[in-house]
Write a structure and sequence with these properties.
The chain is an alpha+beta fold. The chain has a single domain, classed as 2-Layer Sandwich (HIT family, subunit A). The protein is built from three helices and five strands, in the order H-E-E-E-H-E-E-H. The radius of gyration is 14 Å and the shape is globular. The mean pLDDT is about 95.
């Protein structure tokens, strides 16, 4: 089993409203928001509201609900950005590349021949994040 969950990780602080985020989707179980260091334009993070470290310890019913939200967000991100494809990343433990220890999925729009920017790269302009978020929110609203 993995190490214990730290309730002071940055995503837990976002869930508690202690750190702001550019929210694109929220329901009773899930929050999705713009990655502040996006690897592609329109990069979204999808997290459960339940505190779980990663896929190794998240309850199956939470994971099941989460992946349905990931699919919903992937469709909206693709539509909103005009992407040709979507890359999903989900890292577990330091050796697996995890740097924030609250389970999360990266939803990244992709275009043929355009490489992802480095993980943990530079902070994006908040106005750009808001512009992408507005398009994604509109795509979600159009689905309903």
């Amino acid at each position: 089993m993995s190490a214990t969950y730290d309730p002071n990780n940055i995503f837990a602080k976002i869930l508690r409203g202690e750190i702001p985020c550019e929210k694109v989707y929220e329901d009773e179980d899930t929050l999705a928001f713009m990655d502040v260091m996006p690897r592609s334009d329109g990069h979204v993070l999808v997290i459960p509201k339940l505190g779980a470290r990663n896929i190794l310890d998240v309850p199956p019913e939470v994971l099941g609900a989460l992946i349905l939200r990931v699919q919903k967000l992937a469709r909206a991100v693709k539509a909103a950005t005009g992407a040709e494809g979507i890359t999903l990343h989900q890292f577990n433990e330091p050796a697996g590349g995890q740097s924030v220890f609250h389970i999360h999925f990266h939803v990244m729009p992709r275009w043929e021949g355009v490489a992802l920017r480095p993980h943990g790269g530079k902070m994006a302009d908040p106005a750009m994040l808001k512009a992408h978020a507005d398009k994604i929110r509109a795509a979600l609203a159009a689905e309903e």
